Amino acid sequence: MRGLLNFMVVAVFVFLFVNIPLSPAELIEPTRTLKGEQETMGRLTVLSEPPGLKITLDGDSIGKTPVFMVEIDSGIHTLRVKDSETDILVEPGKTVKISLFKNEFIFIPVQEIKVETEAEAEVKTEKREKRPERPRNPIQIRNEENRRQSIKRFNDFIDGTKGHF
């Protein structure tokens, strides 16, 4: 009887731990997707000289210049300001800045702002603190003092405290 019990325990052990990993696993469907979380819109800023010119995007009016940070679908669009027309590419999450000057479009580069994490800021602070302070030489001290005096004289002249610079 004891041998039969041991055989049954071993058989169950073999069945559970040997056969299960060999069986094909079933795929579980995802419960949500990231499609809704992706940014599909871009932004458009249009300037002109002179201001007040009519703007159309793909044939639809979006206002008069200047227009700032209007959200539009990403992709290629036809932009028309007054009588001038150009194609623009709007990337998701990016801003396109364009200006019309003397009937020519000027694309203005947009510098993306990098948000610094607390850890990165802490590393920068540590590096700054570790740097030994160099002694200033007398010429630097004299130049700084001259600069301060010049700024004070200029401010006194602007304020009207002194009649001369």
Strand numbers in spatial order across the main sheet: 4-1-7-8
Approximately how much beta-strand content do the residues carry? 25-35%
State the CATH architecture of the domain at 39-108.
Answer: Sandwich
The SS-based structural class is alpha+beta
Mean pLDDT: 79
Order of helices and strands: HEEEEEEEEHH
Largest sheet: 4 strands, mixed
Please describe the topology of this protein.
Blueprint: H1 2-22, E1 41-49, E2 54-57, E3 60-64, E4 67-73, E5 75-81, E6 84-90, E7 95-101, E8 104-108, H2 118-130, H3 138-159
Parallel strand pairs: 1-7
Antiparallel strand pairs: 1-4, 2-3, 2-5, 5-6, 7-8
Key features?
8 strands, alpha+beta, 4-stranded antiparallel sheet, 31% strand, Immunoglobulin-like, 4-stranded mixed sheet, 3 helices, 165 residues, single chain
Could you explain how this protein is built, in words?
- The protein is an alpha+beta fold.
- It has a domain at 39-108: Immunoglobulin-like (Sandwich), CATH 2.60.40.10.
- Helix content is 34%, strand content 31%.
- It has helices at residues 2-22, 118-130, 138-159; strands at residues 41-49, 54-57, 60-64, 67-73, 75-81, 84-90, 95-101, 104-108.
- The chain starts with a helix and ends in a 6-residue tail after the last helix.
